[in-house]
Design brief:
Layout (H helix, E strand, L loop, with lengths): L1 H14 L8 H26 L17 H9 L3 H4 L1
């Protein structure tokens, strides 16, 4: 159920992007960042329910996410809530 809700939220965020040609680069950057954040969200959720909370699950990559934010995320007790 949660995965379906996240998929619906992700779809809605994509659906409301601007179709304006002058915004194409901004929209593309936004979509890439959104995909990375959703990847982190799924990874964090899987870690949260895994018996080994430090188990590495694959993510797309962390390009565009600053080091300070990633450090805060990894030090957080509830990464799903942070994302």
């Amino acid at each position: 159920q949660t995965r379906g809700e996240w998929f619906n939220a992700y779809s809605s965020l994509i659906a409301f992007t601007s179709p304006a040609p002058e915004k194409e680069l901004e929209v593309e950057a936004y979509l890439h960042m959104l995909a990375r954040l959703m990847s982190l969200l799924f990874c964090s959720a899987l870690q949260q329910v895994s018996p080994d909370r430090d188990r590495p699950f694959p993510i797309l990559d962390s390009n565009g996410l600053d080091t300070k934010s990633l450090k805060f995320l990894y030090e957080s007790n509830d990464r799903v809530e942070v994302i």
